[in-house]
Amino acid sequence: MPETLNVAVAGYAFMGRIHTAGWAQAAKFFGTPARVTHVIGRNRKNTQAFADAFGIPNVLADWRDAVADPDIHVVDVCTPGDSHVDIAIGALEAGKHVLCEKPLANSVAGAERMVAAAEAASARGVRSMAGFSYRRTPALAYAKRLVDEGRIGEIRHIRAVYLQDWIADPEFPLVWRLDKDAAGSGALGDIGAHIIDLATFLTGQRLTGLTGITETFVKTRPKLAEQTGGLTARGSEERGEVTVDDAAVWVGRTDGGALATFEATRFAAGRKNAMRIELNGSKGSLAFDFERMNELEFLDFTEPAVESGFRRILVTEPEHPYVGAWWPAGHGLGYEHTFTHEVKDFTDAIVEGRAPEPSFADGLAVQKILAAIEDSRGDWVTL
Ligand code: SOE
């Protein structure tokens, strides 16, 4: 085991950028023994500019070069979904630990191949993890603690939505996230995957069956001229077809006897990153909204009705998950901290020789649900 793990990050646009920031912060705030030594990107000029800005010493144009380099110990896959299978499997077979962004792959078959490679690698002590970063939001990690302690009792309802509006303008161009070949699906896989994972993470329950529908409201858009930021772009005069869903809704039953409802959309005008989840149990309720990510609502249903009510817990105390490494109570954390916590937890597992969570198998379970929602078209699908 090297003293410090050398990390190659594949991709630099949005996820690559935030993962790179996460690795740097994890080293500083948690003493995580890892550093980004390489960034991999096909556009030489942009990749170099990113490397310069983030102080990364090496730039690679091809992920195969990272996989072949014995001095690289971790490959962090932050590219669009169509390259996840090849990079992750190539890296695992070469003995690199792999962190891979969600959704794990663009198909169930691809995710199954990744799981097989991850299991074979695990037998050799090579670790892998799926990048469901929201699990590492302190308020959600704390919510899980409360659920595990039985504070809300038996769970009756899981109610989750993930609402964005960044493509609500019909003239927003065809970025890769709107291309089925590159992204696998639309709002469903990009943000729906998060709430599927979170529902399982928080409750420990899995969907046993579901029915769902998807919709593409805007069928054609200007072709891409230039990607100007993580979720911003400039279009050209020519138009092309949107090949993914704009929104999806689904409802299901869990193996723990709960009813679950979900919605994922990029057309919720005014909602920027409103990932909300509410759990109602026999003894209480919990509610969270990522747009207020330092808060958690908790209702204790065992208290007398005359004085019970939702209390707003400010999840900024040093005793709350992850918070002690950061700022004094009340000063709050942001989106990027979830990635810092993610790479910290991943590295801890590598160092301690245990399997990190969520595993690629967890990523495959999400992938199967995404496929079931697409196949359902309003019919019941047993999982
Ligand atoms: C875009 O919809 C996106 O960046 C997702 O890809 C991320 O997973 C989510 O964290 C925020 O929104």
From TrEMBL:
SUPFAM superfamilies: Glyceraldehyde-3-phosphate dehydrogenase-like, C-terminal domain (SSF55347), NAD(P)-binding Rossmann-fold domains (SSF51735). One of its GO terms (molecular function) is nucleotide binding. The keyword Oxidoreductase applies. Residues 5-123 form the Gfo/Idh/MocA-like oxidoreductase N-terminal domain. Keywords: NAD, Oxidoreductase. Residues 142-286 form the GFO/IDH/MocA-like oxidoreductase domain. Pfam families: GFO_IDH_MocA (PF01408), GFO_IDH_MocA_C3 (PF22725). It comes from the Bacteria. This is Gfo/Idh/MocA family oxidoreductase. The lineage of its organism: Bacteria, Bacillati, Actinomycetota, Actinomycetes, Micrococcales.
